[in-house]
């Protein structure tokens, strides 16, 4: 198969794996998957990679032959363990190790779908093929390979957006959400507030964020907890004054987004919601306050599935890299 | 009365004259040899290994019925088998193609009944591997079977059944997700299982034939 075919199929597999197996990736992982998806062809001097490697490729070809050792499960495990852990150590992202395994494995799977098959269980000389019937397999360089790469490209384009939000995110988005507008009447701590809506006061727990404890009776005050609590008070319990200087309301007006999938309340009877604020005073209520807490390093992310889990994790990683808030003030804090 | 059922309408000779000049009665399409059922010597599998001394019959590799049919055809060529013993021949004179059709229409029990006295104590060389119960069936008739394999012969392993394992895992994950109260996992496993179940006939078709 051609280099382009392997790269497209490798990326398709990475996006699919990210969507299904719930890990998020960044550019280093995409590059690692692309490189590793062509790596097994180092044992073939006539391949693109073989030309680049020159005598190394010829030596590998002489020692093992094409589609043997480098196309086996043994090589997959060795390369993932060696190259994957090295990239993990360099980038600090575990997803790069998964990308190495997925990219390399995609090459083996793609070659297994060709007429020649691969010696997947090397040193055994059995040739693994998928599917078993010869007429259903791809002819390298033929029209069937063009069809294969086109289908892989379509699936890659379909899986890419799903991989960015995760399968959980997709399901939660498809399920939709209920919207409520209300006034914040009290801030309990960084991630818990009370909102008066439709004449009732409702305790609200912000979804996907976890600020250090400040009011839990059986727990000490957490590192950076008071700062998180103060910030939430400052933003959400800000006294609203009109142009004449009169107090309109004590708390801020917010929009609550309550997902229809999953529990709407937690174990303490608090409504689980995303809190949006009108940051530009144009009535749009598009600024997600939950994400603000993470970006400023005032909260950690939770591990359970929700609509914006992937986005929150990306924001948390950026905050961690910047050393924002609790990430520099509380170095002993555990990363979830 | 001669009810010739062959497509050649009686132009081919009725019985082989012996030697290596057999006509091609290939069942393959567009002039290509039929896979595993080609009776012509022109397309015989070249094993590269000569049979042992004193072989009585030599047949290509195949499953039980194909092996019995080839064996019966070989016996007929050697003049040891009377086609009229087969019920499907219905007492007619048949050429090789007609006999082959009649053999495939016959039950394996009937072929074994006809072949039994002919192959008892004989040595049969198979150019490859007899799949399934082929070897047992011939040995039960009292024949000695030798299967030829090349040292550097390519041997394939069909990975298609892995799909069925994935389908089983998807089905199990649905119940696991119910226990974990994980809705998105339940939906994902459900989609995967529905896909596997829907494409099941295609997956069966994708599997490598047992004779290859």
Helix content of chain B: 40-55%
Could you say which overall geometry of chain A the principal axes of the C-alpha atoms support? elongated
Form type of chain B: elongated
Head-to-tail CA distance between termini of chain B: 41 Å
Mean pLDDT of chain B: 75
| Total separate domains of chain A | 2
What this model shows, in words?
The complex is a heterodimer of chains A (336) and B (212). Helix content of chain A is 45%, strand content 16%. Chain A is an alpha+beta fold and 336 residues long. Chain A has 2 domains: 3-164, no CATH class; 176-329, OB fold (Dihydrolipoamide Acetyltransferase, E2P), CATH 2.40.50.90. In chain A, β6 and β7 (247-249) form a beta hairpin. The longest helix of chain A has 33 residues, at 143-175. The radius of gyration of chain A is 26 Å and the shape is elongated. Chain B is mostly helical and 212 residues long. Chain B is elongated. Chain B has helices at residues 64-77, 96-105, 108-119, 134-140, 162-180, 183-198, 200-206; strands at residues 57-62, 123-130, 144-147, 156-158. Chain B folds into 2 domains: 1-155, no CATH class; 162-206, no CATH class. In chain B, 40% of the residues lie in helices and 10% in strands. Chain A binds chain B through residues 20, 112, 117, 120-121, 125-133, 136, 167-168, 171-172, 261-262, 305, and chain B through 154-160, 162, 182-184, 187-188, 205-209. β1 (127-129) of chain A pairs parallel with β4 (156-158) of chain B, so a sheet runs across the interface.
